[in-house]
Write a structure and sequence with these properties.
Blueprint: E1 2-7, E2 10-13, E3 18-26, E4 30-39, E5 46-52, E6 56-59, E7 67-72, E8 77-82, E9 91-101, E10 104-109, E11 113-118
Parallel strand pairs: 2-11
Antiparallel strand pairs: 1-3, 3-8, 4-5, 4-9, 5-6, 7-8, 9-10, 9-11
């Protein structure tokens, strides 16, 4: 079993910054990717940023040049540095980890952390 624990959410004013962290623990085998998704009220969950072991990083167009994803492999931790925050960034942010075992991919999710941006 894999556990993901997020931290770093909160309430900030537009233009501010936040840094999210997600620590993975448990029976972790080969990590294929770690990333961040978000879900705003009434909307579907969407990819924010992902860092893949084999092919680097990808960002949603809406956060490019403002958010940076990074990973500390030794600590099984992924970070999301969020700058120049906008009210439309308000959402619950979820950490995601994808592992590969026996040729199958397994997805794990954190409990989510609330990010609220005031105008």
């Amino acid at each position: 079993q894999v556990q993901l624990v997020e931290s770093g959410g909160g309430l900030v004013q537009a233009g501010g910054s936040l840094r999210l962290s997600c620590v993975a623990s448990g029976r972790i085998f080969s990590i294929n990717a770690m990333g961040w998704y978000r879900q705003a009220p009434g909307k579907q969950r969407e990819l924010v940023a992902v860092i893949r072991s084999s092919s680097g990083t990808n960002y949603a167009d809406s956060v490019k040049d403002r958010f940076t994803i990074s990973r500390d492999n030794a600590r099984n931790t992924v970070y999301l540095q969020m700058n120049s925050l906008k009210p439309e960034d308000t959402a619950v942010y979820y950490c995601n980890l994808a592992t590969v075992k026996g040729g199958l991919t397994y997805q794990y999710w954190g409990q989510g952390t609330q990010v609220t941006i005031s105008s």
